[in-house]
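Quick entry between incubations.
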Amino acid sequence: MTVHGGVGQSIKRKEDARFVRGKGNYVDDVKLPGMLYLDIVRSPYAHARIRYINIEKALKVPGVLAVIRGKDLEAANLAWMPTLMSDKQMVLPVERVMYQSQEVAAVVADSRYAAADGVAAVEVDYEPLPVVVDPMKALEPGAPILRPDRKEQTNRIWHWEVGDREGTDKALKESDVVVKENLYIPRIHVSSIETCGCVASFDAMGKLTVWMTTQAPHAIRTVFALVAGLPEQKIRIISPDIGGGFGGKVPVYPGYVLAVVAALKTGHPVKWIEDRSENIQADSFARDYHISAEIGATRDGKLTALRVKTIADHGYTDAAANPSKFPAGLFHIVTGSYPFEKAHVEVDGVYTNKPPGGIAYRCSFRVTEAAFTIERIVDSLARKLGMDPAEFRMKNFIPPEAFPFKSALGWEYDSGNYQGALRKAMDIVDYDALRKEQAEKRKRGELMGIGISSFTEIVGAGPSHTFDILGLKMFDSCEIRIHPTGKAIARFGTKSQGQGHETTYAQILAEELGISSEDIAIEEGDTDTAPYGLGTYASRSTPTAGAAASIAARKIRDKAQKIAAHLLEVSPDDLEWKDHKFQVKGVPDKAKTMAEIAFAAYTNHPPGMEAGLEAVDYYDPPNLTYPFGSYICVVDIDKETGEVKIRRFVAVDDCGTIINPMIVEGQIHGGLTMGLAPALLEEIHYDENGNILGGSFMDYLLPTAVETPKWETAKTTTPSPHHPIGAKGVGESATVGAPAAIVNAVVDALAHLGVTHIDIPITPWKVWKILHEKRAA
Amino acid sequence: MVLAEMPSAGDEETGPFVNVHVTVNGAPRSATVETRTLLVHFLRENLSLTGTHIGCDTTNCGACTILLDGKAVKSCTILAVQADGREVRTVEGLETDGKLHPIQEGFIEEHGLQCGFCTPGMMMCSVALLQKNPHPTEEQIRRAISGNLCRCTGYVNIVKAIQHAANQMAGPSGGGRP
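Done. Structure below.
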């Protein structure tokens, strides 16, 4: 017997009812009496000394109430704030600006328009300083030291390495075939359609409430308490409806802090909402990895070893949001779907005159960088060996019976069936027929390519023995209350930004409790009411808070069993949970539903038992989860224009147990599109003076419905053995897996011309240039 | 932080101001606004119709799409005064007599939305398309919504949502609905 809205059902989303009516409540929709508006003066220079800031004219602008400068904050010890990576970041500069569009001063006014007028009236005199935009040059001797405030007088932020250096060197030396590729994964920007912003307000008792575009409200509250010295019970962070996050809404940006300072000083609520151009020029940057990878194999195509060296451009501060023990995130998942015996990875973080980078772009802590590297270079190696890339992968995959599998770099993969996923993708796309078609087309001079990516993800951070952010362990939570009438409310430490938690969490609880998902309200994002949790990013909601939901529900079932026994006048041991109710074993007619039990919990509970039916669980996952998939992309290249057209893209994903197939498919569609974006379109580029080229939607090209192909999806199901319902998380798999499939397809189309790699984004211009250089057009 | 001196009464020099009268979702609405006020701010702040969203500052994203005299326009690139005396329809005007518009049903049924931020603009653009072309091909739908950016869905289900609405509006129950 199924429960309505249980696990595995494609029920429609609860949250849609308000969104399709225009009744969502996003931060910019919050309007408080007497609310003021904050706007920000930004630097035109990437590196400059501030000679002076003249605010006289700005203060005379009608409607302007105040101007905040770095020196005003310095007086309150708030000019700098810590980043989540234990580096520090300016709220407002006192002496120097470090990147173009950096916050320089803030204007508070009684309307948006007056605030903008005030910004235009602030006069700042700058003395330009030498700019370092290239991280390689930043590491050269004699390069300007960008962070003289640090003890170490170098632009190298940190060096991090893992694996067996000597063993890897030796194994590569002894390999019959070694392939090396230099891969640049450029800086990109998540560009959720809602930008960042907040409304900060103090009440008469001095309690601060901040409505804020944040994916991690509880952690933010603690950070505010630690930085500003406010008592934590007097801080309430409310993350209302969020218009997309993708990682860009995890960090604390200066605008949030400025709004709080302005609210404190003016005594009025203050709203700060950044423009798109500010958003795309100043915050939420991802990637910027300069990767050099070497891979070895035996003559007959058996992988031997992998060595990866990376320069990570973090901009002027390390303001990424990685677990604190992993400055390069989970990049050491780079051994991917293959059982390397030896591997070594080293990463150097570097300062440059760019905005803070290294934040996620819909992926779990550098996992896209890792998956792209391994899936790209495995393709190069297969080509060098003259093997078909599918055959090469099949030959080398970790076999299904090897799970749980310990990787060369220390991860324990929970479960997988990589052969199964690739076989399915090949069947759907009819791989052999495509190879035949390609051979015929090549004879005619037509350019067609087939690319494969068989990625392994690592999500659901994470076990508290290894995972924390600023010391806060990365558990997550669920608190359930069942009301007397058998309806329920559950609150979580996570925060949906479009993933549909109001629906999927209710489905987990419906399955566990035998209550229709319609009768379970889900709340997140209010730190005054929700249990503490680290928030939603890195595909961690289902692996952590989703697991907490199951465990909390099972705690409720334990108590419910005793109440049911009391009602049925049997021993609890005589009962079994079957068909979503407690039945006397072998006597299905003698049963109590959760609704009946809930009513009794408040009206007729057993003597000596506490009344009520509630539970809370803080779930500390025993391991991460390892979703995987195989993608096959088919491209045609227009020789006249260099344009890459994706003809087909088949995505076979395995995220373990699926809670809502409709929502999972939607997540994969979106992820694929954010995989296509950096592969073909998106890049945040800087000129030598540190000017951002692509600082608005005019130049930074998000995929539209025209560039986006009709994605074809399919699934295999390999449950996680350690998650209570076997789920793994799915929000980012496709973003992680898709770029390599697309690039591999383009390289495959051009391989006969000697092309082994093209850096992303693969624009028509890059392809056209190659075709002309190779005289193939 | 340096506070401005409070202006004395009558000292304010903002404006100039203008009265704007617009028929919004069938009802006459008016407000006195600065002449430079954008239509999207007029709708969101003066009329508290916050379903129309702002996602960019370069007229690229389409989150602010509304119908002006029946035509889909980006309300961030039109002044409120330009809408004076005209008819505006926003997402709040799609549902009538407690019944969702077929496009709203389509977005729910086909999972055409995730975070919901682009959704109102996307739906208004779709309504304009279906008024002009009740039976669009997939290619025509993709072209029509190419001025509206969605970061969550990958568009596949948005296309299906619009097809769903087209079918509903062509069928016996939804026939002829605007």
